[in-house]
Amino acid sequence: MTIPTLPFGKLPKKSSELMERARNVTPGGVHSPVRSFKGLHRAPIFFERASGAYLHDVEGNSYIDFCMSFGPLILGHADPSVGKELENALHRGWSYGAAEPYSLQLAEYIIERIPFVEQIRFVNSGTEAVMTAIRLARGFSGREKIVKFNGCYHGHMDAMLIKAGSGVTALAEASSKGIPQGVAKDTLVLELDDIAGVQELFSKHGKEIAAVIVEPLPANNGLLVQREEFLQELRTLTKQSGALLIFDEVISGFRVAFGGMSELLSITPDLVTYGKIIGGGMPVGAVAGRREIMEQLAPVGSVYQAGTLSANPLAMVAGMATLQTLNNNFYATLEKSSQTIAQLFQSYFSHHKSDAFKHLQVHCFQSLFWITPRCEGPIRAISKIPSTLSSSFAELFKVFLEKGIYLAPNAYEVGFVSSAHDESVISELQQKLTP
Ligand SMILES: Cc1ncc(COP(=O)(O)O)c(C=O)c1O
């Protein structure tokens, strides 16, 4: 198949020149900060095409991609079955701003398969999903305080860009300029894996807490796999105090199992937020949960939420085509290839002549992986992340790029494996990693 090139006009075909122009018209040259390659001592690469497990840059180089658009592309880039549905949908028009059957089909498909999801509302991003879930939790409970954890990312809404302050437990401060103190004071920040800290907070402030939000598989500050007891304790304490438990499964939803971490651990949150895979690579997010909570949303209830492009028909069919391929066999195969890939990386590091690489360790959970300097025991909280992480990553990123392997351009980002990372891609990877 010949792939039509974009009408680039007179744009240069060199990443460095494109970046120079981009910086002039966009802050930092990018539309999301992590794309800027900050700390990596080189300009970002401009990609013009992607298919299967590969990204192709404007200069004609190809890379095996382990960033996968930061997670949505569980079937790989430009999956033909998703592409076909998108082509069909294009002929039907790409936005109606009115009721349509495509979101209904996707909603019913999800509700049939995730027992605690009784209703779902589609939005346009993970951030929007979290924003809606927080407002819904406050509207439902009549309380204002939200508990979150250091090391979890929930998008860029004001109430979530809050980090732990120094000294006093849970007293928080904004992690970005532009966030009013009045917003920051209602977000309480705790450490992951600290059951005693959560118990103490609930014993003092339990009745003021509207919701606890957590990534049940924290995968935005590295891969901080939590103990099941910790998440169970969050469920118990929230239930006892009348607070809601929100699982942010924007990454883990449909990735570690169809029903995400809540299915794997059999823990039922009150609300869940989805994004990424649920839209098959198109811009979508969703908030979902029990009917009595969801029906607080307008137009039934008085918690307001809306969106011009929400449940966009292209995104709905891309999501549906993606979710329909996800079954137990799919996940078993994906996990197997992920383990093989992680082993290939680990063996490459262990046999490397440079000490910097010899001491790297690959952490793998299902189809997610994270590379860190070797450390004792599992890393469950940000305080346990080795301090040399970023400096070791810059060299690794560069060496991998030269080999045609693309990792997400930041030490704290995880890697994603897709079903397009099949046997032939794995054997190519093996060749690339053979000294
Ligand atoms: C767990 C989690 N929640 C929320 C978000 C925000 O999603 P979006 O970038 O679509 O706004 C992300 C994005 O990476 C995420 O990983």
3D architecture notes:
The mean pLDDT is 95. The protein folds into two domains: 15-65 and 328-432, Aspartate Aminotransferase, domain 1, CATH 3.90.1150; 80-323, Aspartate Aminotransferase, domain 2 (3-Layer(aba) Sandwich). The strands form four sheets. It has a seven-stranded mixed sheet, sandwiched between helices. A four-stranded mixed sheet has the order 1-2-3-15. With 435 residues, it is of the alpha/beta class. The protein has helices spanning 15-25, 80-91, 101-113, 126-141, 181-184, 195-205, 228-241, 260-265, 291-294, 313-323, 328-350, 355-358, 389-403, 423-432, and strands at residues 47-51, 54-57, 62-65, 119-123, 145-150, 162-164, 172-174, 187-191, 209-214, 244-248, 271-275, 285-289, 360-365, 368-373, 405-406, 415-416. Bound molecules: pyridoxal-5'-phosphate. Pyridoxal-5'-phosphate binds at residues 70, 125-127, 130, 153-155, 215, 220, 248, 250-251, 275, 285.
**What sort of overall outline do the alpha carbons produce when their principal axes are compared?**
globular
CATH class of the largest domain: Alpha Beta
Number of helices: 14
Number of strands: 16
Q: Which small-molecule ligands are present, each listed once?
A: pyridoxal-5'-phosphate
Query: From the coordinates shown, what is the CATH architecture of the largest domain?
Result: 3-Layer(aba) Sandwich
Percent range for helical residues?
25-40%
Q: Tell me the quaternary state.
A: single chain
Beta-strand residue fraction: 15-25%
Summing up helix and strand content along with how strands pair, one would put the structural category as alpha/beta
Unreliable stretches (pLDDT < 50, length at least 5) are none
What order do the strands of the largest sheet run in, or round the barrel if closed?
4-12-11-10-9-5-8
